[in-house]
Amino acid sequence: MTHTGPKVKEGADGPVVVQADRGGTDTVPSLLAGLRAVHPALVLIFGPRGDELAALARGLAPHLPPGCVLAGCSSAGEIGPEGYALGKVVALGFPSRHFRAEAIVLDRLSAIPVAEWMAGLRRMHRDFDADPARSIFGLLLADGLAGQEDVLVSALDAALPAVPVIGGSAGDGLDFRDTWLLEGGRVHRDAAIFLLVETDLAIRQITLAHFRPTDTRAVITAARPDRRGILELNAEPAAREYARLTGIEQRALGPADFARHPLLLRMGGQHHVRAISAATEDGGLALMAAIEPGMVLTLGHAEDPTRGMAEALEALPRPPLMVLAFDCILRRLALERDGQDGPMSQLYARHRVAGFNTYGEQHSGMHVNQTFVGMAFLPPADAA
Question: Residue 309: is it exposed, middle or buried by C-beta count within 10 angstroms (0-12/13-18/19+)?
Fold first, then answer.
């Protein structure tokens, strides 16, 4: 079944979200039926993987307006018109009446060609020739398994210091084997897609991490930074020590436990999550963000994410036309474990939140985990 997003006021049309089943014979027609109405300048696709993503792009591209930018990625879950979804295709269409966009591929992540990336980004920004009377922002879709998001956001922050950038790391369900990215009609791996977007709508960033630091700390005494792996905490095998600190049996540790008890790194006066993706066979912990030996980590405790999300959305000056969302898969797992995914879905639907569940999030020149990062698009004050 295909769903279209809520209608907006006459004269205050904003982005539209459309959802369809993956792999269906009517997937492309269903998506186009919702997208054509807004004559999009930008279409983002979340959910499909590998060849399926490429086939979807081939089916959509010929029927989109000339110059429409098409980009997207595989995901760990989707956020559609009715909230959380799984195994779906979610398409977001940004109307040309209000948006303009360009995309660039930052490839060969494993080689880290930072100078090349920065030169391309600066050239892109110069040629984009942004209208100073409109808002400009960047979107980053990154390979969620390449482990280079920290370098990417640092390069973006240095190359485009005046451009606010948010983003999400592509996912692969809970398999953590392969991720795919789309730009135009080509599918990429070991790459990131950066989009420069201009709009005459008001925009507001939303960043929310539902945790608080405890008094429990641990020192990384042995690690594999190149693999984002902790071998030892407090000079003990990392998984065993983490289990002791949380009071959970080591053999029972799983994704929901890691989501409820994240490891936090204090930077810039704030705590940021260094999320755990798995306990490894050698007794270590695999993380989803950069770590180094000698780091002091604080054990976090998850709080009610639904309440915090409601407060953040209701604090917006006007009801949003849409909130583009990059929402960590660990947040969703914690909600599902606590039976709160339904209420969160209702909240997302009510406030027109749409996007995908990620393997990591980017904002303010940082790569983080277990965080909701969003961009709200608001109608003009006189149209609210």
Answer: buried
Taking only the tens place, the pLDDT of each residue in 248-283 is 999 999 888 888 898 999 887 788 888 898 999 999
- Residue 370 has φ and ψ, to the nearest 5°, of 50, 45
Look up the pTM and report it.
Answer: 0.87
Q: Tell me the pLDDT tens digit for each residue of 154-168.
A: 999 999 999 999 999
Question: Which residues does residue 213 pair with via DSSP β-bridges, in sequence order?
Answer: 300
Q: Are 56 and 21 in contact (CB under 8 A)?
A: no
Q: How far apart are CA 301 and CA 278, in angstroms?
A: 18
Three-state SS for 382? Answer: helix
Q: Regarding beta strands 353-358 and 322-328, do their DSSP bridges make them parallel or antiparallel, or are they unpaired?
A: parallel
Which residues have a Cβ under 8 Å from the Cβ of 179 and sit 6 or more positions away? 73, 74, 143, 144, 145, 169, 170, 171, 172, 189, 359
CA 87/CA 145 separation, integer angstroms = 20
Distance between CA atoms of residues 191 and 261, nearest Å: 31
Cross-strand bridge partners of residue 140: 167, 194
| CA pair distance 376, 55, nearest whole angstrom | 30
DSSP annotation string for 207-263: EE--EEEEEEEEEEEEEEGGGTEEEEETTEEHHHHHHHHHT--GGG--HHHHHHS-E
CA gap 73, 71 in Å, rounded: 7
